[in-house]
Write a structure and sequence with these properties.
Elements lengths: L1 E6 L4 E6 L4 H10 L6 E5 L5 H12 L3 E5 L2 E5 L6 E2 L1 H4 L9 H8 L1 E5 L12 H9 L3 E5 L2 E5 L8 E3 L8 H11 L5 E5 L5 H12 L3 E3 L6 E4 L8 E3 L4 H14 E7 L7 H9 L3 E4 L5 E5 L8 E4 L10 H8 L5 E6 L7 H8 L3 E5 L2 E5 L8 E3 L3 H13 L3 E5 L2 H4 L5 H7 L3 E6 L1
Parallel strand pairs: 2-15, 3-14, 6-7, 10-11, 18-19, 22-23
Antiparallel strand pairs: 1-23, 1-24, 3-5, 4-5, 7-9, 8-9, 11-13, 12-13, 15-17, 16-17, 19-21, 20-21
This protein binds uridine-diphosphate-N-acetylglucosamine and phosphoenolpyruvate (PEP).
Length: 422
């Protein structure tokens, strides 16, 4: 199992290129199951989650080739069953449900387990697919969906207790592309990854309007075709490096970003006293640590609000920002596992009921720490960049789920970081 050793205290500077989005790639890869023709997807990040999705597609019978960021999928003859062995390692495997149901008229998909960031039910996914006419049963830990006479367009509201659902919107949108008639999704998630999936589906011949707004309309078509698609840049990877620059940066430039996807993160960093400058076309930005960092408050919200996937990283920044900052997670109120590890590095954080109150200390000190989930591990890496001494971050497989070559990118910026294979 790999661990990362971060020798703190070296300023970072220079330029790196942001990879394609993990969270856009996963549903797009699943959507290739909707056609028997060739799909070519470019800028798929080389991270373990996209590798799992490739394994899932292969286990379902698709022919998949992967070469330097490009994945070619031909799902000519596929099975309708994704069992627990295949899906258990990644929650996002739930997004094969919509495509399999639409293509095969039936699917059996193992329910994903719980998750350290909180309870993650799929009731809205199932309710949405039932709204399109599927019958659903839970049998032996699997969701069994069937629609022998095909799916029928309908109006589906996807608002849950915590607001819209991203992968739930993806699942219903994918299934509705091959349903008879018109589907209207209300309370749809507006995340850029949903828009990228809709762009991919439209390139396959789907008729989707309104993606990126709370109301998405899908006119069903009889068949989808193959296409070529470039995945959008990963706004969470970009945000993570923006925070790294605010912590330890003497001018860090991020290339191949989309400035419009980074508004909430940029506002939060500027409020905390750091400088963010975009180039004229908005595909690169440079971040400098401010001379007078200030405490701030962030509240996670569905897009375009501040993303929950950037909450842990900002907590790491606030850990050494003078004054008292506050972080509230309204989407995953239990997503504060990183705080216990940051406290082991000397942070002053009180967590209660979905909220962390963080009193900035002058400097953190290195400690052996344990990554608990993807973004928590990113937060520990960030905290270690300015901590006194060498921090060992264990269970690196969490970070490898979603950050492409993070050690190499940090090294390219001058950080003293080493991956140790045990
Ligand atoms: C692979 C991927 O893209 N993952 C992202 C996606 O996860 P994912 O799509 O799984 O997250 P959701 O948007 O569905 O979750 C939002 C909220 O709705 C609740 N909920 C969700 C589904 C459901 O059927 N019932 C229900 O109650 C969840 O528990 C949570 O409180 O969006 C999350 C919220 O931006 C991000 O943190 C994840 O990184
Ligand atoms: C929580 C995340 O991913 P997943 O939904 O796949 O767990 C994430 O990308 O931060």
């Amino acid at each position: 199992m790999d661990k990362l050793i971060v020798h703190g205290g070296t300023p970072i500077h220079g330029a790196i290129t942001i990879s394609g989005s993990k969270n856009a790639s996963l549903p797009i890869l699943a959507a290739t199951l909707l056609t028997d023709e060739d799909c070519v997807i470019r800028r798929v990040p080389d991270v373990s989650d996209t590798n799992y999705m490739v394994q899932i597609l292969t286990a379902l019978g698709a022919d998949v080739e992967r070469f330097s960021g490009t994945v070619r999928v031909t799902a000519a003859d596929i099975s309708d069953t994704a069992d627990y062995e295949i899906v258990r390692r990644m929650r996002a495997s739930v997004c094969v449900m919509g495509p399999l149901l639409a293509r095969k008229g039936r699917c059996v998909v193992a329910l994903p387990g719980g998750c350290v960031i909180g309870d993650r039910p799929v009731d809205l996914h199932v309710r949405g697919l039932e709204g399109l006419g599927a019958k659903a049963e839970i049998e032996g830990g699997n969701v069994v969906l069937s629609a022998p006479d095909g799916l029928k367009g309908a109006t589906i509201d996807l608002c849950g207790p915590m607001g819209p659902t991203v992968l739930g919107t993806d699942n219903v949108m994918m299934a509705a592309t091959l349903a008879e008639g018109i589907t209207t999704i209300t309370s749809a998630a507006c995340e850029p990854e949903v828009v990228d999936l809709a762009d991919f589906l439209n390139a396959m011949g789907a008729k989707i309007r309104g993606a990126g707004t709370p109301v998405i309309t899908i006119e069903g078509v009889a068949k989808l075709k193959g296409c070529v698609h470039n995945v959008i840049p990963d706004r969470i990877e970009a945000g993570t490096f923006m925070v790294a620059a605010a912590l330890a940066g003497e001018g860090v430039t991020l290339r191949r970003i989309r400035h419009e996807h980074l508004t909430a993160i940029t506002q939060a960093l500027r409020k905390a006293g750091h400088q963010v400058h975009f180039n004229d076309v908005g595909d690169a930005c440079t971040v400098h640590r401010g001379d007078n960092p200030m405490p701030a408050e962030i509240v996670t919200e569905p897009y375009p609000g501040y993303p929950t996937d950037m909450q842990a990283q900002m907590s790491a920044l606030f850990a050494t920002t003078p004054g008292t900052s506050m972080v509230v997670d309204t989407i995953f109120p239990q997503r504060f596992m990183h705080c216990a590890e940051l406290k082991r590095m000397g942070a002053d954080i009180q967590v209660s009921e979905g909220k962390a109150v963080i009193k900035g200390v002058e400097q953190l000190s290195a400690a052996p720490v344990m990554a608990s989930d993807l973004r928590a591990s990113a937060a520990l890496v960030l905290a270690a960049l300015t901590a006194k001494g060498s921090t060992e971050i264990r269970r690196l497989y969490h970070i490898d789920r979603g950050y492409e070559h993070i050690d190499e990118k940090l090294q390219a910026l001058g950080a003293h970081v080493e991956r140790v294979r045990e």
